[in-house]
């Protein structure tokens, strides 16, 4: 690995640090010299970016008993392991505020696609979907052993489904009380708050007051409200208003998940969404956001269906599609979504990432699949093709429906954390979104080094200190003495995200060392034998 060029980007960054809005206060004290003491790990000569947003500095870091023991200069000392970080950046482990690793981490506890991009902690249970009950899941996961730390939200969709199934109606008083009881138990179990997926079934059938009631339960336990909003396309402004109203009425901090603007007709609307959010913050509402740095999203193919058509599950969907009049109504809803939402007006922008009934379709777009079915490629025929696919079974898609200017504008907002919206993927299987492998290194490569959208210190703050603040973690997210030793060491000139749309199963490069809870998980680019992760519960 090259050592001599590591300070190329660092030198450039230091030259304009005075323009960085987060740099303030006293510089970290780096002149302390320590004498002989035995440590578990000693990191020497690194350029420390501590997660506060302040200027980076040169220092050694000593790790002992799972914590950052001392920071300074070490004259004579002993350690079980010494890492020469000359020419490299030493940062807090990255905290992913929007993860779906809870879905399949039991099968893939290594989560190598996460840890190789420097992620040491994930917040799971997002978009309204979470394990239930949480305590049982937490115990099972810890008994199995995991690579990284996991915090959890309680999912509204999961709770609603447990009480009401997938019915398209409001809950009775008894059902609402039952949902609130399940929410109460989840918070007692250690959930960090409530998550909603109001675009998904059955959350899409919930009225605002139902969500407010559950958010009040989370608020009473000092949790926060994270939401995949009801709409991110043509109704995004109304969805922003609903989200902020829930925060005000429930008196709860709000976190907007994977903020984006989808659909060509809405591109540029991030100016209005961010202005509305900033105004709410200025008025006293605690609002934060997260974002993945791509112009395509990924979710189930059924996202293109009108929500009413998905009520009751697969059996009821088939009934609707078998009825000619109802099928036509469903088709019109899909056409509308292809034109104005995640299709961005073109079925070729919708890629199938996974489809269990026919795995060979993975990697093909909806236009190609329509042609394979013997149909002329039109939006109308693409809707027919999609209905045929979902008649057999659900799949996942990648939707190229965002604009780079919106992505950059959102990224520049200082209240936006970096997040993957990814999962614990099985290496080599299907064609998932590259965010599963490359989110954090992509920001460091493209938006810091190449495009200079923000400084290294600001990017690290968005990956560490800011998400730690959202989670109210007092012992993670910064390089500071007595903090838990979650640390990532990377070469700022070489960090890269080779994962792409057609070949996503490629690990990040330029990140040779990842330490979690004081143990080497990635050691000189090699996966170690350790599974030191833990379940984090709400403070």
Structure overview:
It is built from 16 helices and 22 strands. α5 (173-189) runs parallel beside α6 (208-220), α7 (236-250) runs parallel beside α8 (270-282) and α11 crosses α12. β21 and β22 form a beta hairpin. The strands form 4 sheets. Strands 1, 2, 3, 4, 5, 6, 19, 20, 21 and 22 form a 10-stranded mixed β-sheet that branches. The protein is 33% helix and 19% strand. It has 539 residues and is of the alpha/beta class. Among the domains are: 94-295 and 401-472, Alpha-Beta Barrel (TIM Barrel), CATH 3.20.20.140; 299-399, no CATH class. It has helices spanning 7-15, 112-115, 134-144, 156-164, 173-189, 208-220, 236-250, 270-282, 314-322, 324-340, 366-372, 379-392, 404-412, 435-450, 456-463, 465-471; strands at residues 33-34, 38-48, 57-64, 67-74, 78-84, 89-92, 94-96, 119-124, 149-152, 154-155, 193-197, 224-228, 254-256, 287-291, 297-300, 350-354, 396-399, 416-418, 487-490, 513-516, 519-523, 526-527.
Task: Summarize model confidence as the mean pLDDT.
Answer: 93
> Spans with pLDDT under 50 lasting ≥5 residues?
1-7, 11-31
Straight-line distance between termini: 40 Å
Strand content range: 15-25%
User: What is the CA-based Rg, rounded?
Assistant: 23 Å
Oligomer: single chain
* CATH architecture title of one domain: Alpha-Beta Barrel
Category by helix and strand content = alpha/beta
CATH-assigned fold name of one domain = TIM Barrel
The level 1 CATH classification of one domain is: Alpha Beta
Shape descriptor reads globular
CATH-level-4 superfamily name of one domain: Metal-dependent hydrolases
Largest sheet: 10 strands, mixed
């Amino acid at each position: 690995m090259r050592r001599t060029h590591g300070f190329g980007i660092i030198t450039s960054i230091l030259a304009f640090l005075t323009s960085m809005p987060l740099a303030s206060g006293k510089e970290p004290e780096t002149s302390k010299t320590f004498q002989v003491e035995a440590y578990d790990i000693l990191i020497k000569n690194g350029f420390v970016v501590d997660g506060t947003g302040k200027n980076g500095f040169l220092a050694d870091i000593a790790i002992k008993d799972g914590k950052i023991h001392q920071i300074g200069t070490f004259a004579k000392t002993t350690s079980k392991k010494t890492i020469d970080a000359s020419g490299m950046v030493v940062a807090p482990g990255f905290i992913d505020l929007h993860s779906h690793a809870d879905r399949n981490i039991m099968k893939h506890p290594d989560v190598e696609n996460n840890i190789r991009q420097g992620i040491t902690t994930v917040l799971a249970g997002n978009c309204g979907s979470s394990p239930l009950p949480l305590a049982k899941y937490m115990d099972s996961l810890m008994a199995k052993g995991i690579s990284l730390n996991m915090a959890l939200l309680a999912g509204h969709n999961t709770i609603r489904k447990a009480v009401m199934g997938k019915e398209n109606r409001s809950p009775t008083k008894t059902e609402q009380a039952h949902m609130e009881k399940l929410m109460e138990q989840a918070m007692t179990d250690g959930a960090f708050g409530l998550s909603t997926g109001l675009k998904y079934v059955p959350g899409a059938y919930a009225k605002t007051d139902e969500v407010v009631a559950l958010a009040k339960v989370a608020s009473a336990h000092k949790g926060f409200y994270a939401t995949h909003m009801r709409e991110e396309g043509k109704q995004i402004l109304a969805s922003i208003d609903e989200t902020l109203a829930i925060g005000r009425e429930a008196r709860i901090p709000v976190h907007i998940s994977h903020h984006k603007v989808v659909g060509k007709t809405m591109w540029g609307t991030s100016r209005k969404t961010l202005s509305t959010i900033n105004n709410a913050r200025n008025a006293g509402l605690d609002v934060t956001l997260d974002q993945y740095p791509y112009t395509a999203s990924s979710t189930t193919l059924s996202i293109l269906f009108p929500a009413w058509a998905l009520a009751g599950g697969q059996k009821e969907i088939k009934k609707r599609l078998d009825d000619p009049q109802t099928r036509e109504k469903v088709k019109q809803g899909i056409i509308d979504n292809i034109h104005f939402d995640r299709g961005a007006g073109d079925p070729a922008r919708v890629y199938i990432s996974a489809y269990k009934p026919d795995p060979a379709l993975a990697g093909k777009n909806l236009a190609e699949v329509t042609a394979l079915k013997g149909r002329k490629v039109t939006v109308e025929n693409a809707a027919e093709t999609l209905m045929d696919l979902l008649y057999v079974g659900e799949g996942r898609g990648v939707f190229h429906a965002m604009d780079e200017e919106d992505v950059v504008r959102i990224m520049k907002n200082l209240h936006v954390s970096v997040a993957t919206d990814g999962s614990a993927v099985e290496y080599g299987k299907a064609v998932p979104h590259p965010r599963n492998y490359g989110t954090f290194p992509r920001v460091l490569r493209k938006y810091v080094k190449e495009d200079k959208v923000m400084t290294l210190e600001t990017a690290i703050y968005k990956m560490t200190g800011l998400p730690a603040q959202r989670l109210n973690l007092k012992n993670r997210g910064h390089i500071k003495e007595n903090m838990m030793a979650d640390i990532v060491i990377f070469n700022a000139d070489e960090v890269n995200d080779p994962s792409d749309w057609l070949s996503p199963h490629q690990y990040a490069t330029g990140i040779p060392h990842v330490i979690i809870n004081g143990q080497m998980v990635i050691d000189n680019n090699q996966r170690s034998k350790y599974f030191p992760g833990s379940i984090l519960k709400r403070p």
